[in-house]
Amino acid sequence: MGMRNTNALTPRDIGLILSYRCQANCAHCIYNCGKSYHDWMTPEEVRLALLQARAVWGRGFQVHLTGGEPFLNFPLLLESTKIAVELGIPVYLETNVGWCDDLDRAEDRFRQLREAGLGMVLVSVSPFHQEYIPLRRTLDGISAARAAFGKANVFVYQSEWLPEMAKWDQHETVSLEQYEAAYGREQAGLRFWMGFGVVSGGRAGYRLGGQIPKKAAEAFSGEDCADEMLYAQHSHMDVYGNFIPSSCAGIRLGSWRELDAVVAQYRQGKFHPLVALLIDKGPFGLYQWAMAEYDYHPLDGGYAGKCHLCVDVRRHLVAVGIDQDILAPQAFYEAF
Length: 336
Ligand code: SF4
Ligand code: SF4
Known about the structure:
The chain is α/β, with parallel strands linked by helices and 336 residues long. Helices cover 42% and strands 10% of the residues. It has helices at residues 43-57, 74-86, 103-116, 127-130, 135-149, 162-165, 176-183, 185-196, 204-208, 226-230, 259-267, 273-294, 306-319, and strands at 13-17, 62-66, 91-95, 120-124, 154-157, 234-238, 242-245, 254-255.
């Protein structure tokens, strides 16, 4: 490209993926989180990542502590909160509250975080989570968070699902097949994909793609990814040092340890060739390239969305052993 993009890579909300470890394994999880991961950031890395972000973006951003499930390492979560507060960075967290099996302990943890200066709690709620987390725990987690933070500072995403979820036994997990049986497959697909806004990246395209009509790769020609790659408001820094644009799990623009250099490079219009391809031509460009150069074959039955196409091509590139610096973390490609 070579064009200068002075506003490129200026996210307002940075997620620190403290770990990809999660006690759930949600079908819609674009980061492929689950129990197979064991690595966590250290407090030193959290500080370093935030210092890098501060050096590049000044005071123009907030941070959210996330995963995976960040409460699976509560000492780190608390310490990370303190570090962000000490650096003057507004901080909130995301949790699935599936760990909440004891209301008093949960309330105590939320109070410690509140006292440390955490601003807000986002609780993730959906039938995808309900496959792994009984609704009772979700409701207890929300009450515990509200007791410590006040109702206004606990955002339940997406709360509109709670009445649907409450139709089932609150003490049991509920499979998506049960929802499909109750709604009908097509209706369930519509509600999940349109109502929830499932993104087809990560494992979502594979696990949930059967619920909607899929499309051939050609259907995505002309859909570029300039906005996601260059102008996302939301980006992540992960436990393995990757700086990830938008929701493009499995793609890194560079190491956050050298964030200043990475951002400067992108603002000068110097992109990794595969990133340049995605910026210009989107996943269809990547698909054509992988077909021509690396014998990629289209997925039988097509793709649930543009990110599904992108992920499937990238999996192939990783599987045939192509050493592409941007295809990271490796663990993502092993956790479908
Ligand atoms: S969507 Fe959230 S709760 Fe579900 S597996 Fe991913 S990180 Fe865990
Ligand atoms: S198609 Fe690929 S690059 Fe584009 S938004 Fe989806 S994951 Fe990101």
